[in-house]
Amino acid sequence: MIKYPKPLKTGDQIAVTAPSSGVEESLHILLSKAKGNVEEKGFSVIEGDTIWTEYKAKSSSKEKRTKDFISFLKDDSISAIIPPWGGQLSMEMLPLIDWNLLKELPPKWILGYSDISTLSFVYTTITGNASAHGTNFVELSAPKWDAVTSKWTDVLGCSENEEIVQYSSDYYQSSWEKTFKNPGTGFYFDKKTEWKSLSKNKEVAFSGRLLGGVVNTLQILIGTPFDKVDEFISKYTKEEGVVWYLETVGMTAAEIYRALWQMKFNGWFKNTNGILLGRASGYAPTKDFTLEDALIEVFGDEIPVIYDVDIGHMPPQNILVNGAVGQINYS
Questions:
Q1: Which of these, 257, 188, 186, lies nearest to 219 by C-alpha position?
Q2: Are 110 and 72 in contact (CB under 8 A)?
Q3: Helix (H, G, I), strand (E, B), or coil: what is residue 327?
Q4: Which of 109, 143, 194, 278 could form a disulfide with 80 if both were Cys (CB 3.0 to 4.6 A apart)?
Q5: What count of other Cβ atoms lies within 10 Å of the Cβ of residue 28?
């Protein structure tokens, strides 16, 4: 059975730590504003030692990041861990974590995306504890949370066997330029959202246990001791099957194809009922080979694919729980 953390409720304490990148001094305002906003919603925020610095593309040494992260997982007063944002090198922590210890500890919410999904993905597939893919902490610095992002409190506040409904956005943010020029002012939604079906069917429906993250970093897990996807699928998805949700950053069509091809032939898409692919940030076709070509080559007509979904680096994004059963209805 998937183990779910206790539902997040008003008054609970949320920890902010940086398993990947920290926040450089010029953007510390994002941490301060996000803290204020989250506390206004009735939560308590505790800040870890790693969030204020950034050096050599990471917040601090892998040892310090691991110590900070584990201390919050072990702390019974902490209900959720929300990193400031992603980065590049969270995988350095994986060999330093005592995964047998984590299996024994009560499950705790981890929420984030980008490189944070490397950590939460392994956390779920090794321990069987649910984790969440969605907004990072600094994105909560917006003066007003949009309808899609604000669902994070509802999703993390959900009880086991309780249902929650989320919808696609109306508009999304195609560039971070204005956001970083005006820190703490929120997203700048400038493009109309349109989810797409690879099969061109007007209506598509599928369900299964959600599992996924950012392709760029999940791909590097293959062949390592931290690739427990086969065991997770066999143990937890026999009845419901799997719904994979994936996002990419700065990958060409050929690079996306190679990554998905590797996942496929490593057995990751076994027992899969459907694929959700987020808007491909920084994407470019490879000559006349497109994203759609890549998806057709990997999934064909066998597995339904919905793409340009509210997942990943062009916000807003739905809050998806690794291990929970998701029902997807597209029209």
A1: 257
A2: no
A3: strand
A4: 109
A5: 14
